[in-house]
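Subject: sequence -> structure tokens, single chain

Hey, anyone have a minute? Need the predicted structure for the following. Not urgent.
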Amino acid sequence: MPRSAGEFATALQAANTHDDVDIIGWTAHVVGRRQDGGYVQVWISAGGTNEHSPFFVIVKLFPGPGASASPLADRLAETLAALAGAWDPDTGLAYDRELFKTVKATYGLPAPAPRCGWSVYLSENRAARVPGDFTARRLPTEHGGLVLDLAASPGEIPATETVLASHRALAESGALEPMPVPATGAKL
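Reply:
Had a minute. Here:
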């Protein structure tokens, strides 16, 4: 796991040596492990000029054997906000496997479709579609995007029912609209 922005940039460049990186973009899949066996995966894709290149950030959390909480579970929204501030993606979310499967199954979503997690990042155009009365802690990002923390209090993990209801509300508002195919840009 890179410990600084410089180390991360070096690792990113080393992993993306293909001739068409300016077209298809940069990708990174970084894993940070804890001594208790828990780990965090961060998957990022950004920077391509090709209309079909995805532009996103996903944070996956996995608790260690016998652990009750995932790493970073108390800082999900802040983690997403930091990543979104650095990358300016279209969408992002924090979730575990069970939540991902539940949201996918409940709404019949293909794997890459925008969706809610415990926290969700929406780019500027998506954030503009969030209803004014949508209940969530809001963390604006420097590019005009917005992280929605669905927890009742910072550091808590929201109930699955809360995530499902939030997904429904955001989908109905157009904030989770899938990108057109072919895409007209890197973000909605």
